[in-house]
Amino acid sequence: MPLKVGDIITFERTFTIRDVELFIKISGDEGIHHLTPDDQGRLIIQGLLTATLPTKVGGDHNVLARTMNFEFLRPVFTGDTIICNVKIEKYERVENNRITIISSFLCKNQNEKEVLKGDFSGIIL
Questions:
Q1: End-to-end CA distance of the chain
Q2: Which residues on adjacent β-strands are paired with residue 96?
C-alpha cells in the first residue's frame, strides 16, 4: 500500500553493548563515553547509531535520501528502548514517475523522554 501524507510509521529498538561495539568498528567513534560504563553499567549510544532508527524506516520504503536533519535531545544508553515515529509530511509524484517525500520524526525512550527529532527528504525510486 502506498504511503500518504499524514501516515505515521513506527519502529522500535533496544540498544545493546554489542551494538555499540559494532558501531565503533564501523564508524571509528571511540569516544570515552562509548567505552566506559556509567555507574549503572550502561554505555552511551553514538548519536548516529540512534539516528539509524528513522533511516531504517526510510530504507524500508526505498527512500533515496537528499537531506537528513538530526537534533539530539538527550543521551541514549545501552538497554534503552527507543520508539521512533516517522510522519509523512509530503508525498508527491514528480517527473520520471518518481515520488518526492518529506518526513519528520520524533524518537522517545521507554520513559517517554524525547531523545532525537528531525526530518528527511528524498525520492522513492
A1: 15
A2: none
